[in-house]
Design goal:
Shape of chain A: rod-shaped
Oligomer: homopentamer
Order of helices and strands of chain A: EEHEHHEEEEHHHHHHH
GO cellular component, one term (chains A, B, C, D, E): plasma membrane
Catalytic activity (chains A, B, C, D, E): Mg(2+)(in) = Mg(2+)(out)
InterPro entries (chains A, B, C, D, E): CorA_cytoplasmic_dom, CorA_TM1_TM2, Mg/Co-transport_prot_CorA, MgTranspt_CorA/ZnTranspt_ZntB
Subcellular location (chains A, B, C, D, E): Cell membrane; Membrane
Strand content of chain A: 15-25%
Strand order of the largest sheet of chain A: 2-1-3-7-6-5-4
Number of helices of chain A: 10
CATH class of one domain in chain A: Alpha Beta
Mean pLDDT of chain A: 91
Pfam family, one (chains A, B, C, D, E): CorA
Structural class of chain A: alpha+beta
Chain lengths: ~325, ~325, ~325, ~325, ~325
């Protein structure tokens, strides 16, 4: 679906243009065209391919989707894939933003994502001195918008981790802790595969040999890279912590178990003693003088209570009870 | 076994040719020869070695099979090994496709694989403008076909992982979960050794210093590389998740165990109390006044029931029962 | 908040200057300006941006804070971020020091940190021969001060690790051990993300291609790098040891558990034997001759004691008791 | 001990020569000398050092043995260390083959190894067209022979792993499984330190900057490298799998344990119920009407059996029994 | 404390010289000065700094100690830090050897180490042809001496590991095994941080771009590097094995536990059966015909023994007992 199709000159929009005029505007050379599609149909992509003169392989990638984040040069034009990430009811939803860039055009194709980039265009149009840098700035603005939305996702995952941690040290044997840790790990793994190749790719857009289109906007892409670097560090930290937490949870379960076992052992011992005594005086020997004593029974009860009480105190001290 | 042997000019097949004409067609210089063998006998390979002038070491590799995926230059010709992968009744079956490439020939030798590449040839012959790129395009088409068939394998493994996950959180102590995780890990390890060296090798076919034969098809091989990169990422994700799942399963077993232990402890305690009471009133002391009471027995039963009931409720609250 | 704003010439302070004179002093070219801010307001940063002619993106970073440590070049000027670390009541508190450097100025902005750097300025002013090296030396002095304060933090963490270790081998099942190990791991992870990117960045300030501003102070930055390298090694060692300790703790819990289980098993066996004997002689068969023996009862007691004593000794030998 | 000492010209042996003629044959320049020693004495090595003009440090290495595999250049001559590996009664036996190479000589010194290399010499002498390549080909033939013998070792380890796997899922608690896994891991670690540095070194003998002696035999050393690469991959796979197997075995033990525990719990519960009932009717209260019933006893037995039977069925259903 | 201070010419000592003559001997240019200090006081270091013209930062490092191993260039002079390692009563004691090297001097400062290097000097003086290489050879001799003393430490750690292994498979639950493994891991971690940075640094003293002082002694430093490489491999192998051993030990504890649990379960079952029978015949029902049988009691005993014996045999077969 076509979202937007406009031509810009010196940082200002000169016109919303129809799709079939794109190639002529591109040919003018004194302006650039910025087109935004959403969940594009093959037919739409084909029109774009012809108007912009895009490379077949790049268009095919955009068509199939499910690409890894990447930055590819096709001669003097480029093809960039970034992934959008949203948390929808606790689940991670991954979309895709494919960007085709040439000397005087930018074409963005968004798929499987609720996020829109109208705000990016609006902000860009309010700052003509920046937009006048041309397509490279548009790409920066789009990537920056995508990457900025990673931060709340990371924060949500960190918050979840902290919540699990708090419960872990209170209720280690709670089945849900471990299941949530596992789910968290899976989310972080997904996120890692979204962020890490993008960071790697972004690292090629500044310093060293840079594609000519981005030569004058290196500081901006270094900024994007910095954000990705921080996000990547956070991801690594969460991953590492989750791994540790899983191990620690196992230890906590073992300790819980051990506490229960000790308590069981202690009470079992106390009652076994009582039962053994009762068993002995329950024997049917004829000659058991104490059975005939007047205070035999209370004495026996006192004796049993004393022994059991003594054990109880000892177990208490040993912290088994 | 010879599958196919044909000469192509400007992207079109000019003739199916007999094996002993190969060298003369190659010598013409205005066409290229594309030969496909399957489970080749040493004698067949020897004929090919002479007709194409292949390097002894490469032929030996093709003869022995069980090579790692690789891309090797022998002077101006090249030798490429890729592995085919199929899931046959849940088991991973690994075959091999050895490709010899020269300026005007391609020889592919397939072993231990049910997959055929007739479709690749048919498609290539339908697109003369692509096939006219010569051997490099044929190699791309073959590699692309092999790599495309990795995706369903990956998806099958991911599906299996998800199935195990679902059961893991329900029936942690199921012996089969852990065995299936282990088998999954082994399959992924096999797959990794199929994909990862190929990715590394494919990375040398575009960007930087590229073998002359592939100089004009770099975009295509970058496409193959991208696919391998994604597959490799998926493999890494599965590996990592399986490792975590094995640990998590252990935790779940420990939690299950702990639940059973608590329940055992609770019931043992309840019955130990009842038995201890019964034991006491089963003693044979002469002077045990309560034994002579009219309602001694029901009182005792009520008392025992009350104490046991109290314990039951307490254990319930503590969630041991 | 402005802490300090002074101009230096040949290593000596020539004047405390008002903020609005900064640009004119910078323009003189024969002196340099050293300004220190603390928890700067956006307005203050904006003034600085204008006076020093700072790059927008760097100022934005300083404004937002929460950057990763880094060293960035903006044309001939530079932007450096280092993190300060303090242990406040056992918790790790991370602050930030942003440094803007130009040919004849240094601007430092400190946030979220109780540490001040007045000592750095005082020491620098006492050593004009060093301060005469200009901004690069100031940056070195600041970084050195920050990094020096990492050492006591590392030592505190190492001390805590040793304390946990001592308790771990005595009281493995202590819940607090594992919780403390976990917290220690988290602190070390935080510290790692403070130190490791800084080390990486510092590594670019000496040897190989060095930013022109730092060309003559490479030995100093290598010294900072060395310190960071040692700290990083210590962090790695702690991380590794904590991981091992968590596993070892689990083993110790399992061993403790096993000791308790053996003891439980042993006592249970002993009392079960006694109870079984008592049960047998408690049966109501008419014809049980031993019940009528004169010394039946003491004989029975002796027999039971003997068997139980024998078991006790055997378990002792097997080290179950 | 001297094994062989011969001079070769144009790929053919021209003479077995005495040790003291070596230097004069080397000086001729139109032939090369190939000497093989076994478990060389210091005195023998010293003679060789003088005849061949070897570097002191290389000779010292050969004398001490226990080197890591390596490829070292000493001016125009080279020193190569490879390790031989044999499985002797299940144990890994590591020997060493030190090779000194010059423009027209090869000296190999074998230690602690039952493998001999007479076959290599015989085969080389049968193929004069290859042997005429000179020392580089001899080195290739020796290395190839050593590396070829790694394959059966790897296969033996893989077979052992599979055997352990089979037993692991049947008899997890078998002490020997875990011990064998541990021993397997150790063997693999030894093998890794044999193969991995050699692979690294072999990687320097082709492609990029190659020692002049090997310039014309790069394809051969790439072949050796390929073999080592595959072996290394197999080693990594075994290592990884053993690690997983150790964890999986622990899980299997825990599951076994849990099965036993459940069964124990179930039977304990059933007997505790029976005992409690018996205890109650064993009490000595005067007024226990059911004791006087004619069918009291059989009723009691039926009741006890019914309750126990009910429990048995329930536990069966819950799969505790 | 000054240990030695001498001047050498053409590999021979020409004089023991007083400290205040050092600078004049250095200035001569035809000889070199070799000074050795031990646990140097700040004042001594200051004298050396002036006599040799050392760089302030290097002297400060030597003064503070606790450096990581490193090789640093200060203009044409160099500063090298290596760590000495001794096993004193099973504990690892780490000392430091700081070496300052110039074109015609070597100054070594040893701290916290019982090892002396008089042997190095004596050996060097006995081999004038080597010593005539000048300071670089002295540095090699010192480093070689330090590194040679790592080997016995490694061997001691390997021996300890083997001892623990032997006990581990016999007495898994021995608390000391796991504690010793942990201590071993810590020692190896310390050793790693001693060896690994030194190896890295030594790697810069041969091949590629080498500091001019060492240009003619590259083969020697490659030899040191080789030793460090082997030691490093051994360290990695021990680390890896200790990690595995910790896991294996946990498995062994779990298996031991499981053996004990099975035995407990078996005996508990046997006695529970006996007790249940006894309980039944201990009930006070009037009408229990078997109680009045003449051989009721022995029959009962036989029955109980038979059932228990049957269980015993079954458990034996199932290998629970």
């Amino acid at each position: 679906m076509l979202i937007n199709c406009a031509a810009y000159q010196k940082g200002r929009k000169i016109a919303d243009i129809p799709v079939d005029k794109i190639s002529s505007y591109i040919a003018r050379g004194d302006c650039f065209v910025w087109v935004a599609l959403k969940d594009a149909e093959p037919a739409e992509l084909d029109v774009m391919r012809q108007e912009f003169g895009l490379h077949e392989l790049a268009v095919e990638d955009a068509h199939h989707g499910h690409q890894s984040p990447k930055v590819e040069e096709y001669g003097s034009s480029m093809f960039i894939v970034v992934k959008t990430v949203e948390l929808v009811e606790g689940a991670l939803q991954v979309g895709e933003l494919d960007i085709f860039i040439g000397e005087n055009y930018v074409l963005s194709v968004r798929s499987h994502s609720h996020q829109d980039f109208l705000g990016v265009r609006a902000r860009a149009e309010r700052e003509p001195h920046l937009l006048s840098h041309g397509p490279a700035f548009v790409v920066y603005a789009l990537m920056d918008a995508v990457v900025d939305r990673y931060f709340p996702v990371i924060e949500a995952l960190e918050a979840e981790l902290e919540e699990i941690e708090d419960r872990m040290f209170e209720q280690a044997s709670e089945r849900s802790n471990i299941e949530r840790l596992y789910q968290l790990k899976r989310k972080v793994t997904v996120l890692k595969h979204v962020v890490s190749p993008l960071m790697e790719s972004a690292g090629k857009l500044f310093g060293g040999r840079v594609p000519p289109l981005f030569e004058h906007s290196q500081n901006y892409f270094r900024d994007v890279y910095d954000h990705l670097y921080r996000i990547n560090n956070s991801i690594e930290a969460i991953r590492d912590t989750v791994n540790t937490a899983i191990q620690v949870n196992l230890s906590m379960v073992a300790i819980d178990e051990s506490v229960v076992n000790k308590r069981l052992a202690a009470w079992a011992a106390i009652f076994a003693v009582a039962t053994a005594f009762a068993g002995i005086w329950g024997m049917n020997f004829k000659a058991m003088p104490e059975l005939d004593w007047k205070y035999g029974y209370p004495t026996a009860l006192v004796l049993m209570t004393t022994v059991c009480g003594y054990l109880y105190i000892r177990f208490r001290k040993a912290r088994w009870l």
